[in-house]
Request: fold
Amino acid sequence: MTTLATAAEPSLEELQVQAQQGSPDAQLSLAIRYRDGNGVAKDDAAAMSWGHRAADQGHAEALDFVGFAYLRGAVVRRNPEVAFGYFKAAADESAQGAFNLGQCYFGAQGTEQDCGKAVDWWKKAAAKGHGRAASTAAMALLSGEGVPADPAEARRLAERAAALNDPSGLVVLGELQFRAGELDAAKSNWEKAAKLFPTSETGHPAQPSGNASAQQGADLLKLIEYRQRKSEPGEFAFVQMPHIHQGYNNCGSTACATFARFQGGEISGWDFKKLCPSPLGTGTDWWHLLDASAKIGQQWKLVTFTPDDAGFEEATAMLKRELDAGRPVVVDFKYVGPQYPGGFAGHTLSVCGYIVAEDLYILCNPAVATPGLQLITSDDLKNFWRSNYYGSLAKGVLSRPAFVIER
Reply:
């Protein structure tokens, strides 16, 4: 996203004069202020008007600003094809534009999917100083998601992201160090990540990317001991899962691909999505995900629980039974809030552990940095683990859905 206006900028009155005189920098600054309601009443129409005026002059960051508005669909009607065109025009000069262009190629947004081109553009953005682009490319190369796996290049990019002080890069590099037995280095990077944004006892899966990565750093520090311990049924369990960082709107298929990989499969999130009838870059019906699992020889079943307290007790008892047996569980979350187009969003991820003494559960989330681990309180799990749009056959009835390994 475009950098927010800072205190060093001219006053609103000065910006308005400069913008009227044709300064694209001032026009973009005004657009950002109107979008965010920073020192002026929030006004989406004014934000887009000033953004367009700067973009029409070829201002690279303004081109990215307008493109992101069309991709997100929160300020104007969503149009990925228009967004892609703006990002392509911005990418040679704008690191953020190059990152977003890579996102479009990776997630088939406004263009045919091309994961190789996505990684190339992320690398170009990383060379321009974009830390998140470096960490995102590292994760694609780690898991071999749409491109051949390249652990050495993944580590180089994770180191680049960490050098740029990107919180997700610090998380990924710390994880690579943890796996290599470089425990002190891993701790150091997770501590750095945790200091970049405010953290708390736990976060929640709906946090913005930077906040989520900082919280991950704090969570991973707490989890070091547990990840090195043998599970104690009824008290603590941790099931190590592979992690694939999802592309745009591909949480369901990506979570299912990691579930399949846990059971010995090799499928990617995108290849799992291609087994379903819905197009790339769109949400996936859970019954289609279940059908796709059968196509690759996986024996899963869908179970649901009522959204009340009694249903949560039954659901968490099931979770603990599965996790005690060394089996993770895929669940569907629902987020509600004005920041989501339409007022809500759904997200699919896995529960891979629990800690009774701290009343915590461990998630493996395809939307956050590798290893994807996050801690969540029991109360937050109760709040988020519910859905009435996970599949057409649900008929809008709110429940707590889960995929479990059929035995």
Remarks:
- The chain has a mean pLDDT of 93.
- The first helix runs from residue 12 to 20.
